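[Meeting: bench + compute handoff]

Bench side (C.D.) handed over the final construct sequence. Compute side (W.E.) agreed to return the predicted structure before the next meeting so the bench team could plan truncations. Sequence as handed over:
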Amino acid sequence: MQISWPLIVGILAAAALVPSAAHADSNVAPEPATKAPATAKLFAIVYEPGPVWKRGMPLAQQNLGEHGQYMRRLAADGVLILAGPLMTSEGGLVILRADDLEAARALMDADPAVQKGQFVGTVSEWRPAIDPAARLKGVLAPQAK
């Protein structure tokens, strides 16, 4: 899998400035999760297909409902900054807040998709190096359904 790191860094830098919110159209009430402290660091999780991932099957057929609920709960609690699939691979990217690397790994390990073996992930501390507010304004606008 070839990753365009300059593109990812730009998107992540923009995302660090965008407030997170749960999906309002979800009919599942999020359960409480640990709130991220204001002094938390940022971490990137790169998800890749795990041992039970159904290769060649569309994302919509991967039975990721619990993963989505977990991501929405983290967003509602202010832990998750952004999350979504990588469009050129069968993986995903998550930016979240946590106290330290151990706490970020614990959040990844608690993801139902990781627990079921649908995803495996790599966690790294991430720090925005560029202030993209003016340059990337509007790039992260919601997409039409």
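W.E. noted at the follow-up: Confidence is low (pLDDT under 50) at residues 4-33, 139-145. C.D. will use this when planning the next construct.
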